[in-house]
Amino acid sequence: MSSMPADTASTAGDDGIIIRARDVDVSFGEKKILEHLSLDVRRGEILGFVGPSGAGKSVLLRTILGLNAKQGGTIEVFGIDYHAASEREKLSVERRWGVLFQHGALFSSLTVRENIEVPMREYLDLSPKLREDLARLKIDLVGLAPDAADKYPSELSGGMIKRAALARALALDPEIVFLDEPTSGLDPIGAADFDQLIMTLRDTLGLSVYMVTHDLDSLFQACDRIAVLGDRKVLVEGPLSKMLDYDHPWVKSYFHGKRARTVVIPQAPSQEMPSEKSAGAA
Ligand SMILES: Nc1ncnc2c1ncn2[C@@H]1O[C@H](COP(=O)(O)OP(=O)(O)OP(=O)(O)O)[C@@H](O)[C@H]1O
């Protein structure tokens, strides 16, 4: 089923690391946003990326995707340094990731099916019929009804837009998807359903997920590991239990604050994440 090119399929993540960022520096003029930032994303995990507003979460995401320049350090995706890669290597990397930008960012003049076909047109040489069939499969995969295919974004609810945008992110059968605040704007049930969908895709497709989020429910229930951005670097990364034990003012107030106490499972286990499959949606 995977459209992964055979020549790149085995290059990366042989050690289980799908993204390896080391000593990354990003500045805009005099303003340093990221400094000596290091982070690993492991194959098959849902990594929740969290931090105060304005800390640089979107900047890091854009830098990983090659949309921002960096002034120092390296970022390897599938073992390839995208920033230093040839055009051919860049294309091979782009075919292996999918991105869901904040607010979905669907093309408003295209139907859902046409939106999903955009990356296929750009990167694959498929007949129109095959493109359409694959787009309909993706629509089914994300739990949208078949008739969503011919709808325009303006005809969709917020939750449907997120699913349609996810279907587009999955258009090329990526190994990793980047999700920028995927549950923002959804009601709690819609958000829990979306988290469940992400977990199902991880379990059934072996998908790796890099999820920027402010949503404590997602962090507590869907994420295998969490990384916290603060003071221009990754302060701490690991399972929820590590976050709960970590002694830093922002981390403490975030994970032990009033809002967190309504979400966190009392007596959270000290070693691993609570079993998200058995915990279910809140
Ligand atoms: N292209 C740019 N030029 C100059 N400054 C920028 C640029 N992009 C981002 N910044 C600055 O970088 C800092 C980090 O922004 P970023 O959007 O990454 O924060 P964030 O952690 O994603 O915040 P939020 O949670 O509110 O979305 C901000 O001070 C922002 O103004």
TrEMBL record:
User: Per UniProt, what is one GO molecular function of this protein?
Assistant: ATP binding
Q: Which residues form a coiled coil?
A: none
What UniProt keywords apply to this chain's record, in alphabetical order? ATP-binding, Nucleotide-binding, Transport
Signal peptide: which range, if any? none
Q: One Pfam family, please name it.
A: ABC_tran
Ranges for domain ABC transporter come to 19-256
The entry sums up its family as follows: Belongs to the ABC transporter superfamily.
Q: Which PANTHER family match?
A: PROTEIN TRIGALACTOSYLDIACYLGLYCEROL 3, CHLOROPLASTIC (PTHR43023)
Supply the name of the protein: ABC transporter ATP-binding protein
> What is the organism of origin for this protein?
Jiella flava
The uppermost taxa in this organism's lineage are: Bacteria, Pseudomonadati, Pseudomonadota, Alphaproteobacteria, Hyphomicrobiales
